[in-house]
Design goal:
2 domains; GMP Synthetase, Chain A, domain 3; alpha/beta; 15 helices; 454 residues; 33% helix
Length: 454
């Protein structure tokens, strides 16, 4: 059956520009960001501080959680006049969000046309958060300004290799979005061993930009290398959503030739910083404010700490001084010509790969039919025991049925891993996090060793 909404979008694509399709707020914010990138350092800092003051005043007057927090800590928005003043506001954690969903909503919450999303779960805990429609428009404008700065323009061909909306292996390409001129490729085809089809579609489409998570691109790259396929040349390769580790980058660069860049962000506050492939990013100062919690410094990096982020434009569900638990260093302005401060990411979110007898595969664990079963689990992790055996470690909650629910999980995890592994369950009291405070969804020394040697 033809999707009538898609048919209408395809029809409109002939007559409407992409900025016009995104709407009035996008055009306004995009034009603003084109001007602000020419500002000097002082103008950017002044703008950011003013936006923080407005956000704090809004939170004090309209958000129940902050009204009480400020009262308890004798904080007034009128006292926030410097970045140092702002840093005195208590840090927001994921657990606080989970326990205060309704109290973090502004009194006029619905007037901001809020968009619901979830945290990534890389700390082992998933929480519901919201972004206002205006905040989402600003995020989109910020993304396009960065894409433009790397030479990629509106309606130029783009390939999005993205998480599966289904696990139908006969659905070769999820959608050719004519509005965006974007080929959306279902990651499950790579997991299921249909890399030839994906590569052929990429060659036929000839994208100017490939937009993908690094582990997904690494799995596809390994296939290209091992099957003697000529390296794929593209103007820009952009990665997002995960930390791109050196062993992953090494393989991708053998298979895809082009200019690499990536963005650091989180679903809570979305885009935070952009940069080249060196884990050094520049803060998007018109969009967010980044800080380091010095109290969380580690011995190996005494100047580092957990990264604290505040989005400047989310009035529906403000997340003020949110702790992402990513370990980073704020390097400040590294040259006289830099107007944006630099952030160096030392650790953080990432999904490592598994190694099957057919090659590398991506452990996309959360996309299960019985998602409700995940609500019965505190934490979970895949550990690769051998080339064809994976252990599913679970920290179950009291309502988890160790017979029925366990059988469903084994069945569906096996299916989502394309039947490449025998999956068994091991119940554990806890799953430890890494030094950077994250908990990996999959651990495979086999895959990492394989990538290093490839």
């Amino acid at each position: 059956m033809i999707n009538p909404f898609k048919k209408y979008r395809d029809f409109r694509s002939r007559f409407i520009s992409l900025p016009a399709y995104y709407g009035r707020n996008f055009i306004k914010n995009y034009n603003f960001l084109l001007k602000s990138k020419l500002w000097d350092r002082e103008q950017l800092q002044t703008y950011k501080l003013n936006q923080l003051k407005l956000l704090v005043a809004h939170a004090e007057n309209n958000v129940p959680y902050y009204r009480e927090l400020f009262k308890q800590n004798s904080i007034s928005s009128a006292q926030i006049n410097t970045f140092e003043d702002f840093s005195q506001i208590p840090i927001l954690t994921r657990n606080i969000i989970k326990n205060n969903i309704d109290r973090l909503k502004a009194d006029n919450f619905q007037s901001y046309s809020p968009i619901k999303t979830e945290t990534s779960g890389t700390t082992g805990e998933v929480a519901t958060v919201y972004r206002s429609a205006y905040h989402e428009s600003f995020r989109l404008a910020a993304k396009w300004r960065q894409w433009n700065s790397y030479g990629y323009g509106f309606k130029q061909r783009r390939a999005n290799i993205t998480m599966p909306w289904s696990n139908r292996v006969d659905d070769e390409v999820c959608e050719l979005d004519k509005i965006e001129n974007s080929l959306i490729i279902n990651t499950f085809h790579i997991i299921a061993g249909n890399s030839d089809k994906v590569i052929n579609r990429l060659k036929d489409f000839k994208p100017r930009l490939i937009w993908a998570q690094p582990t997904v691109l690494a799995a596809l790259s390994e296939y290209i290398i091992n099957h003697g396929i000529e390296p794929f040349e593209v103007d820009n390769i952009a990665t997002y959503g995960e930390k791109s580790y050196p062993h992953v980058r090494k393989v991708i660069k053998q298979a895809f030739k082009g200019d690499y860049f990536e963005y650091y962000g989180n679903r809570e506050n979305s885009i935070g910083a952009w940069g080249k492939w060196d884990n050094k990013f520049y803060e998007l100062s018109e969009y967010c404010h980044l800080e380091i919690d010095k109290q969380t410094a580690v011995v190996e990096h005494p100047s580092a700490g957990e990264l604290i982020s505040t989005s400047l434009h989310n009035y529906a569900f403000p997340l003020i001084r949110y702790n992402s638990q990513d370990l980073a260093i704020m390097n400040g302005y590294i040259s006289e010509n830099d107007n944006y401060p630099q952030v160096e990411l030392l650790g953080g979110r990432g999904k490592d790969l598994l190694l099957s007898s057919k090659g590398l595969t991506v452990p996309y664990l959360p996309h299960l039919y019985e998602r409700k079963i995940l609500n019965l689990i505190k934490k979970y992790q895949l550990y690769q025991k051998s080339i064809n055996e994976v252990i599913l470690k679970l920290v179950p909650l009291p309502d988890f049925d160790r017979k029925h629910d366990a059988e469903v999980m084994v069945e569906q995890f096996t299916k989502m891993l394309a039947n490449n592994f025998q999956v068994s369950i091991e119940y554990v009291d806890d799953i430890p996090v890494t030094k950077s405070g994250k908990y990996p969804m999959a651990v495979s020394p086999l895959a990492i060793d394989y990538l290093i040697k490839l």
